Structures are given as C-alpha cells and as structure tokens.
Amino acid sequence: MRTLTALNARETPLAILTICAGVAFLVANDAVAKLLTERYAPIQIVFLRNLIAVPIVAAVVLAVCGTAGLRTQHLRLHALRGALMVTGAWLYFTALIYLPLAEATALVFSAPIFITALSVPLLGEAVGWRRWGAVLLGFVGVLVIVRPGSAAFQLAALMPVGTALCYAIFMISARWIDRTERLWTMMLFAMLFPMIYAAPFAIATWTPVQAGDAALFVAIAVFGSLGLALIGQAFRMAPAAIVAPFDYTALIWATGLGWLIWGEVPMVWTIFGAGIIVASGIIIILREAGPAR
Question: Please, are residues 206 and 44 in contact by the beta-carbon 8 Å criterion?
C-alpha cells in the first residue's frame, strides 16, 4: 500500500502537468482554427483537420494495438458519435468567426453541466440535489455570458453551447460501448466518421488552400490529436477529481492567446460568467468523485 501511495504521489504532479499541456495544445488548436476561419469555411477546416489526423491516429493504433485496433463491434454507435463530433466542431469553429476566443471557450465548459443533466434520462443515473444545484448554477453562468434579451446578445453565442451539448452526448455515449473496446480505436473512429460526414459539404464550399496555410492545417491536426492524447493520459495517471479541475486552465490560455493575436480583452460579464461555470464544474467533479472513491 505504501508503494502504491508513493507511486501516486510521484505521478500526481506529472499528471497535472500532462493535462495542462494537453489543454494548452487544444486551445492552440482553437486559436489556429480561428485564424483559418478568416479564409476558409468552418466545415472545410473540420474536414481537413480530420483528414490529416486520421492517418496519424491510425499509425498509432497499428503501433500500439496492431490490426486488431482497427476493428470494432460498435460501428453504428461510432457513426452516431461521429455525427455528434462533426456537428459540435462545425458549431464551434463557426462561433469563432464572431466571438472572442475566451468567450467561446468559457461557453464550451458548460459540457459537464449537460453531462450531469443528461445522465438521468440517458443512463438512468441518480443525481442528488447538490449536483442539480451545481447544474442550475452552471446554467446561470451561461446566461450571464450570453445575456439573452440584452443589446449585446448575439445568436453566435449559442453555438458553443450547442457544441457543449454535442460533446456531452458524445461522452455519455461512450458508456454504451463495451469496455473491451480500445481507447485508441474509439479515438480513431471519432475522427474518421466526422471526416466522412464533412467531406461532401467541404467540397461544396471548397476554397483552394493557400501554400502558407498548409502548415496551419497540419498544426490543428497535430495539436488536436496531441491534446486529446495528453488529457487522456493524465486521467490514467491520477484520479479525475485531482486532474479534471485543471481542464479550466484553458480559460487562461484562451484569454492570453485572444489578447496576443486579436487584441481581445474579455468583458466583465464573460469573466463573471466563466467563474460561475468553473465553480459549477468543480462542484460536479467533486460530487462525482465521492462515489468513485
């Protein structure tokens, strides 16, 4: 027991650094995507990102799992999850055209709220009053940022919320997949199906890729894949209750990159609402960790 405890104690700081690095890569992915939306349709960005990422992930699958990693017993479910992924990515990249990076990032963090709320009808889980309270608190944070009815309200602010909803259902649907399914296999199909779905729409709105932008498309594929891999590894190294709150460091990166690249300064309402959403998410994480312990 002492050996296991000492091992966990050594791995916890590394797990925290790992998730922070993974989150930084994902925010960098979003920042590059926002740059690309100035010249390309969001659906084309989604398609090319996945087109580049699929061979990379497939190579990792073959190296780690062999050809068995390319097979699945849940093809229809992966197809459904792919539809959720491509819809969520398209909504988010479209929102980046109109919203500051920090605001879009903050709204996407409403995903844990949707996961908790939807776990009741979709998974039949029991949610106590404390977690319901955290859900309501999170929705208050979303309303503070979106501010429906005010002069500053814009429909684009609802798009990251739609992304959060798609992501929540995507995460919940993972519970419907047999536990023998390999993580890398799930990741491969989560990129393959969105690429297939996005292809016809991307072709219909195609803009020739400029030579200087080719590296940016490679960057979002690498950043996105690396970010997801590092975050997944962090959750394997330490308990979720320890590493999950560091997911919110994305708000720091998003604010910094938004200011450096576009001169975006978050509004007071965005900061206040983001704080409420973060508090809600941490409460949900801690409540989820209780039964797990």
Answer: yes
Give residues with Cβ within 8 angstroms of 229, minimum separation 6: 22, 187
Q: Give which of 24, 44, 23, 164 is closest to 97, Cα–Cα.
A: 44
Each residue's pLDDT tens digit, 212-235: 899 999 999 999 888 888 887 887
Among 86, 98, 115, 80, CA closest to 37: 98
Nearest of 36, 50, 96, 76 to residue 199 by alpha carbon: 50
- pTM of the predicted structure, to 2 decimals: 0.88
- H helical segments located in the chain: 2-36, 42-65, 75-98, 101-108, 111-123, 129-146, 158-173, 183-204, 214-237, 240-243, 250-262, 268-292
User: Residue 290: pLDDT band by 50, 70, 90 thresholds?
Assistant: low
* DSSP letter string, 172-189: HHGGGS-TTS-HHHHHHH
Buried b (16+ CB within 10 A) or exposed e, 181-195: bbbbbbbbbbbbbbb
Sign of the CA dihedral running 103, 104, 106, 110: positive
Map out the domains of the chain as residue ranges: 14-292
pLDDT in tens, 22-74: 999 999 999 999 999 999 999 999 999 999 999 999 999 999 888 888 889 89
Asked if 158 and 287 touch (Cβ cutoff 8 Å), the reply is no
CB burial of residue 251 (10 Å; 0-12, 13-18, 19+)? buried
